[in-house]
Amino acid sequence: MASYTPPVADIAFLLEEVFDFDDLMQALPGYEDVNAELAVSVLDEGGKFCAGVLEPLNRPGDEEGCRLENGLVSTPKGIAEAYKAFVEAGWAGLSGDPEYGGQGLPRAVQILLDEMLSSANLSFGLFPGLTRGAAEAIAHHASPELKATYLPKMISGEWTGAMALTEASAGTDLGLLTTKAEPVGDGSYRIKGTKIFISSGDQDFGGNIVHLILARLPDAPKGVKGISLFLAPKFLLREDGSLGARNGMSVGALEHKMGIHAQPTCVMNYDGAIGWLVGEPGRGLNAMFTMMNAERLFVGIQGLGIAEAATQKATGYARERLQGRSPDGSRGPVAIIEHPDVRKMLLTGRSISDACRALAIWTAMQMDISARHPDAAVRREADELVALLTPVVKAAFTDFGFETAVTSQQVFGGHGYIREWGMEQFVRDARITQIYEGTNGVQAMDLVSRKLPMADGAVASRFFSIIRHDLQAAAQTPAARAIAEASEQALGRLERTTQSLLAARDEPTAAGAAATDYLRLFALVSCGWMWARMAEKAAVGDTPLHRRKLAAARFFAERVLPQAIGLEAALANGPGSLMELEADLF
Amino acid sequence: MASYTPPVADIAFLLEEVFDFDDLMQALPGYEDVNAELAVSVLDEGGKFCAGVLEPLNRPGDEEGCRLENGLVSTPKGIAEAYKAFVEAGWAGLSGDPEYGGQGLPRAVQILLDEMLSSANLSFGLFPGLTRGAAEAIAHHASPELKATYLPKMISGEWTGAMALTEASAGTDLGLLTTKAEPVGDGSYRIKGTKIFISSGDQDFGGNIVHLILARLPDAPKGVKGISLFLAPKFLLREDGSLGARNGMSVGALEHKMGIHAQPTCVMNYDGAIGWLVGEPGRGLNAMFTMMNAERLFVGIQGLGIAEAATQKATGYARERLQGRSPDGSRGPVAIIEHPDVRKMLLTGRSISDACRALAIWTAMQMDISARHPDAAVRREADELVALLTPVVKAAFTDFGFETAVTSQQVFGGHGYIREWGMEQFVRDARITQIYEGTNGVQAMDLVSRKLPMADGAVASRFFSIIRHDLQAAAQTPAARAIAEASEQALGRLERTTQSLLAARDEPTAAGAAATDYLRLFALVSCGWMWARMAEKAAVGDTPLHRRKLAAARFFAERVLPQAIGLEAALANGPGSLMELEADLF
What we know:
- The structure is a homodimer.
- Chain A is α+β, with helices and mostly antiparallel strands.
- Among the domains of chain A are: 8-140 and 148-154, Butyryl-Coa Dehydrogenase, subunit A, domain 1; 159-281, Butyryl-CoA Dehydrogenase, subunit A, domain 2, CATH 2.40.110.20; 440-576.
- Chain A is built from 19 helices and eleven strands.
- Chain A has helices spanning 8-18, 21-27, 36-54, 58-64, 79-88, 107-120, 122-141, 144-156, 284-320, 340-372, 376-411, 423-433, 440-451, 458-474, 478-503, 510-538, 544-560, 563-572, 576-579; strands at 67-69, 72-74, 160-164, 180-183, 189-198, 209-216, 227-233, 235-237, 243-246, 249-254, 266-278.
- In chain A, the strands form three sheets. In chain A, strands 3, 4, 5, 6, 7, 10 and 11 form a seven-stranded mixed beta sheet that branches. In chain A, strands 1-2 form a two-stranded antiparallel sheet.
- The first copy, chain A, starts with 7 loop residues before the first helix and ends in a 7-residue tail after the last helix.
- Chains A and B meet through helix 9, helix 10, helix 11, helix 12 and helix 13 of A and helix 9, helix 10, helix 11, helix 12 and helix 13 of B.
- Chains A, B: It comes from Bosea eneae.
- Chains A, B: Residues 282-449 form the Acyl-CoA dehydrogenase/oxidase C-terminal domain.
- Chains A, B: Residues 471-581 form the Acetyl-CoA dehydrogenase-like C-terminal domain.
- Chains A, B: Belongs to the acyl-CoA dehydrogenase family.
- Chains A, B: Its cofactor is FAD.
């Protein structure tokens, strides 16, 4: 059976041919030494680690799962050793701030490592991913002392991080949370409460675990304005910075989950854990969103990673499995990749994965611009585009990732349902990405009710103008004309729908009723845009890779993008059909 | 948490108000005593058994799974007792031939029991479902001696049945199978080979297990023409009909599966098992298809069962879970059923489940007509419609069932990913229905390459005429006009696409490239037709049920049916984009 091959050639095509990566890096202070050649070479090494060390642990880790015995969490065989090797090789600090020992590579490189981690072992990838998110929140909001104490070891990966938000009755609605933080008097707090669904809440890698916990100060107002953010380590630190006594927290249980079995998702009891405020009192949600936004992009990338890995395995199987006769009946048994419907399944996965990777890089480049560009106006514009695209990347990539896992499993027929082949694990693992870090429904609401109205719709308009400009340029290349024109038509549908939504801002149910379908329409247009850009460059070359890109672009234009027509029509019907029925009649 | 409520009121609405069930039964010799009142009363009792006995075993059975120890299969705690109670209550023989002790109720009643079985416990439902399929193949093709020996105990449910088709290298392509049958000389055969994925291949209920096995006679030609069907019981029978020695078969392993863990899916080794020919030599596939067609409808019903159960649980949760503020911001926390996007998820499931149930009943009524109507021409026409609809019911209902399970799981947010809530089990269980009894891709190929061309397209045309007639009638009722008109537009799309496909019959890849999208378009139109018929009748009443039907019909027309526009557009692009890329460039 085909094993995972890191898509380094596809990455090189994107960085070297499609995007002006080298020019961009030149324009960003601190990244002058970064270029596509360096990035590809780093990612080639990273890919070897993912394919060689992490992927072989993926299925055994799913079978074995995590255990909680006598209050101690054990991860499956090999995971702790792999994590140590990952840290020793320096992968944890790839994009970390050099001030704290990181290697300072741009986000556009980080997300490509994240993709490969997610392809190889989604459960594993959450450990460094959550640590990075927690470190970002600390870097942006914590005191200099907390930063100096915690960031170096988090950025090296020696210590891991966890985000403790959700409670049994407070999920999407964090305003309902009840965990308390009482001031001790020496600047620290005692935190009491129970959190659920805490990824990486504990591990057996050694080192410390830095918990960022949302809790309420005494007399805090109800709702989200009463929420503050606290940092509490698993082990309190001695004066010399070494690990001291256990802090007042324990793992109440491991959640019994559909998938990501090698990831210890914990019920965490904070029983008077000592912690320190991160950011200002009552501004916890704000600080947490620094982490959440980075995590949401990371979760989107997880969807891409699963889509890529599942498509690869299905393609390998379809080349080897002999069943049935060729379409013209002349030969048989033939490899099932000769059957049109199997090709349709494979091309669906391929056309989704490649487009999502391109859009992920484009978005990450905007993050790099927003962080480093010398011109404040350019930084702000990039930051707005990232804000606009964050819910789209999170929700659409994970929906596509799950759908691609399901389709790829289908290529295997009955064997796809059997655990040994690994395809059903992709489906179970991918499913969480649509749910955590804000369900995809919450992402869609974020897009329509907070992001679209930014600057009265001007941010979305600017994004659509960028797309139209690129599509009109791509249409000048004959081999890219069809995908460019199909995408421009779809863009028109998106723009008309956007205008209707903005015009209906006063109708309280209009946004919510449109949200999910609108986000999908937005994502399809964005993927079509990326295909037009890829086709434009692929038309220049004639390698197998270039031909594959052109074929996938055509497939996307002809067989995937037409969904946009139905979505526009459904959205034009408005919220009425959702709202008329009384709740007790459902 | 809400438990499963058998949809008896919805069934009564369909049988009593939407379909002329009583009139039809009057016209079918042998069913004169059957009417809607009787059917509803029987199904009300059956539903109590499903909800009271089988549903409570569903999650424990998933957790415990089946075991194979010392060659003996154990089903999870309670399953064997439940099976015995099921048989004792007479449910196994509900639609069985009275000549062999069955109760002789029509198929239209049987499938509604099957739906409730599937809602309550999919793993359990396979035991009686496969037994019935095997009994039908025996009834149609076996010798009078085999029928007399095996049918009474299979129809009572005392003995169960299994279908042994698939081998490791022969799945969709049964022509590749290698299991052998050697004549002993006394009319019996010795069967040697290994079969995989054998549902109900063994159990611990006591009684016998009747295996129907596809195998090759010596010197049989290669391919499907060399395949014959054999009956081999787990226990050979003594002269007096009691169970004697073990036959030469054993369970090699239990498959490790994504779901249906309470169902022992076996690797079966036939080591010289004594068996008897069913039907003529070389006509095994023909005999097996008698079983397969019945099973395919049953599998479609399984998809419906999961959709109904998952929608019910999601609806119950959405009424109870408090999160977030009302759309106008005035109240909070509110039950999440107030959020438009949650309503969209619930209505998607509801509009799919109700339409599929209606279409299932309509199809089953055609089966009853084809079996019993006094006029041979009427029987033949009904049989053709069943042949046309079989792949649609199998594939579309199971795709809808899986999608509805996923959407309903999403309503639960993070809790949906946790095993205790039972929603992820629906997803894992539903997934097999898209794969077994011919993958949904195979169903789609059956529709476009065998069923559409029947009588040069005349069967499909006749079906479309029936739909148009009903839609035009429904459009006379104001409350049904919108769904009727939307469905008629979608019907136009289906008819145009059908014409294009029939015109392209000489292009070898046209059918395969269209198959999956075409089947979905076909199913959406069929569901729209059913909604128009339901809305027409719902408009007459003003009960909560009638209002729910009208609201779901509107939702289906406005938010689901528009998919048909995109499907027509995608299909109009033809097979080119699927076929241009060489297999080694994927």
